[in-house]
UniProtKB/TrEMBL annotation:
GO terms for biological process: menaquinone biosynthetic process; salicylic acid biosynthetic process. Catalyzes the conversion of chorismate to isochorismate. Pathway: Quinol/quinone metabolism; menaquinone biosynthesis; Quinol/quinone metabolism; 1,4-dihydroxy-2-naphthoate biosynthesis; 1,4-dihydroxy-2-naphthoate from chorismate: step 1/7. Its cofactor is Mg(2+). NCBIfam families: isochor_syn. This is Isochorismate synthase MenF. It comes from Oceanobacillus zhaokaii. The keyword Magnesium applies. It catalyses: chorismate = isochorismate. Belongs to the isochorismate synthase family.
Amino acid sequence: MIDIKEVQAEALFAKVIQGLHNNEDAQLVSITKKIQTIDALDFYRRARYMGRNRTFWTNSNRSLFLVGIGEAYEIIADQSRFKETKQQWDNLLKQATIHNPYQLPGTGVIALGGMSFDPKKETTELWKHFKPSQFTIPEFQLTNYQGESYYTINVFVKKNDHPSQLAATIRQIEQTLFQASQVEAESFSIEKKVEIDPEGWKESVRVATSEIRNKKAEKIVLAREVRLSFDKQPESSVIIDKLLDTQANSYIFAFEKNSHCFIGATPERLVKVEQDRLLSTCLAGTAPRGKTKAEDERISYGLLHDQKNRQEHDFVVQMIKLAIKDYCTDLVIPGEPIVYPLKNLQHLYTPVTAKLKAGHSIFDIIEQLHPTPAVGGTPRDESLAFIRENELLDRGWYGAPIGWLDSNQNGEFAVAIRSGLIHGDMASLFAGCGVVKDSNPEAEYEETNIKLMPMLSVLGG
Ligand SMILES: C=C(O[C@@H]1C=C(C(=O)O)C=C[C@H]1O)C(=O)O
Ligand SMILES: [Mg+2]
């Protein structure tokens, strides 16, 4: 099967098991092979009936696809979640046996996961399956990097495991994962769409605006929820397929946890690290797309020169600059934003590049950046306190860092916006916007409507 020499895996398991001292002892074994190129979404689809959670990730230029099936190991953290997650990951790697001859970003052992927006906000029933910080080392993983496929198995081996049994189980699952048959997913349709208290939300925008005028804060991002019910539970692979078709320039992701799936197409990079090269993005300020080229150009010109949107954007630029400057050298941030076009809307965009100083990790950067004023506000503590008290929803993982990291100082995190949580035959979609002193509740409401479109349209709304 697929180039993984079962004997070789089995021999490696045997060797590692031999080295374990007692029954509590366990170690991660990770084996990566290059395989014939296969489609990432096909791989994801074939795992549908395995009774395992699936994860899907692709970056905005589609140079990398990651699919994870099952959990060989999970890193879960709550208090001091950034340091805690990093420490657990380092400890796991320190003891792991890793066979990865390729060393390309996203190959070999990776952790895929995310965090909640605000661990201080009480978790509701809706998000009960998603922890404040939860990273999975998948049992089976496909990495498609620049058009080539790499396949990884991860096994958390214990003293009383049997090498031949482990290998046999893997072989059996691989038969399904690599079988060429297409699994057709049934279609679904929306039966009901409910906006959660739109008038209450506009009122909260009004309150936020007056707080800002009273100098209690400068920017506060407020989100709202739209709840959908379907004739049957929507299958995530169908949604991913449509997002891939419609949402260029966006990261596309899905995290399954039991019968829940957090899924979306976000344009917003939080941070990418390749060795010591760091990229971040300031994305805030929004306008719709035009129907004709001329109208589109007029709107983007208007966006670039609009005071209110420029202010929303500038808070993000200033904050990111301050947040990472001590962690980097060679920091470059252009003085003027450009327009970043998406299918349904356009944003103001400023790229950030830098060199990460030795001794710092991607988690240090995420800890500094999250939440940026693109999803939280300015100042951070005041805006978060306002959101915690006045927002009518539990954001869960919406607006928070999601992404991956490997064992070679590479990783990338996006900000989980333009997203929704599928729960049974229901979905909760989320969208927010940056409230500043000149915000108008009706206009902000319209802005959230266009931000809901990417998800609504693929769900049939
Ligand atoms: C909060 C969201 O988007 C953020 C808010 C924006 C704005 O208000 O202009 C633009 C992009 C994102 O920074 C969302 O899509 O839910
Ligand atoms: Mg806005």
